[in-house]
Write a structure and sequence with these properties.
The structure holds 2 protein chains of 2 kinds. By secondary structure, chain A is mainly beta. In chain A, 0% of the residues lie in helices and 56% in strands. In chain A, strands 2, 4, 5, 9, 10 and 11 form a 6-stranded mixed beta sheet that branches. Chain A has a 5-stranded antiparallel beta sheet with strand order 1-3-8-7-6, with no helix packed on it. Chain B is globular, with a radius of gyration of 14 Å. Chain B starts with a strand and ends with a strand. The chains are: A mainly beta, B mainly beta.
Chain lengths: 114, 118
């Protein structure tokens, strides 16, 4: 079975500070991993995805994530936070080669302070 | 290219009623999935359709059902509504039905239909 754990339901940073959102996964098969962002009253937007190619994945809006198999982690980072990054972030896992079913983490709400 | 369109965006129902939500996928996308989002349970997979066939189903009671039409548009229905069915229902579309070397399973989400059950 697959599962995702996001450490920290709320993270607060200052504008310009490093953003680090943690995600650990559990999967008995090689996974695909995703980070999605959700702004208020909107759907989910894909930030980046890991698909067994490069372990360091770059996404939109300056975000990146590193797949670490030994740590079963896929943490999301951004060097310098912007006010517009305030949103809820979801880590998700799906199974390679299987039908489409994303397992989501509980989400991390990011607040950015001036 | 238009995104995933969901209608209605907001609706209010009372317990015992039923509701139908509609989803139009991105043009050319033949796979449509539905997710329920609630503060308590988070994002949970409901079901996926491809070529008018349900390919995968989450752990929801039989009151939750769906279908897909030949033009890939999808509807989901919830009968005998309960208070706990209040949620944001998200539809997502994908290019292909099966994942493989050229398909990562990337989903494109609509803005959702927010259902309130009173």
């Amino acid at each position: 079975a697959q599962s995702v754990t996001q450490l920290g339901s709320h993270v607060s940073v200052s504008e310009g500070a490093l953003v680090l959102l943690r995600c650990n996964y559990s999967s008995s098969v090689p996974p695909y991993l995703f980070w999605y962002v959700q702004y208020p009253n909107q759907g989910l937007q894909l930030l980046l995805k890991y698909t067994s190619a490069a372990t360091l994945v770059k996404g939109i809006n300056g975000f990146e994530a590193e797949f670490k198999k030994s740590e079963t982690s896929f943490h999301l980072t951004k060097p310098s936070a912007h006010m517009s990054d305030a949103a809820e972030y979801f880590c998700a896992v799906s199974r390679m080669g299987g039908y489409n079913k994303l397992i989501f983490g509980a989400g991390t709400r990011l607040a950015v302070h001036p | 290219k238009a995104g995933v369109t969901q209608t209605p965006r907001y609706l209010i129902k009372t317990r015992g009623q039923q509701v139908t939500l509609s989803c139009s996928p991105i043009s050319g996308h033949r796979s449509v999935s539905w997710y329920q989002q609630t503060p308590g349970q988070g994002l949970q997979f409901l079901f996926e359709y491809f070529s008018e066939t349900q390919r995968n189903k989450g752990n929801f009671p039989g009151r939750f059902s769906g279908r897909q039409f030949s033009n890939s548009r999808s509807e989901m229905n919830v009968s005998t509504l309960e208070l706990g069915d209040s949620a944001l229902y998200l539809c997502a579309s994908r290019l292909h039905g099966e994942q493989g070397a050229g398909n990562t399973g990337e989903l494109f989400f609509g803005e959702g239909s927010r259902l309130t059950v009173l």
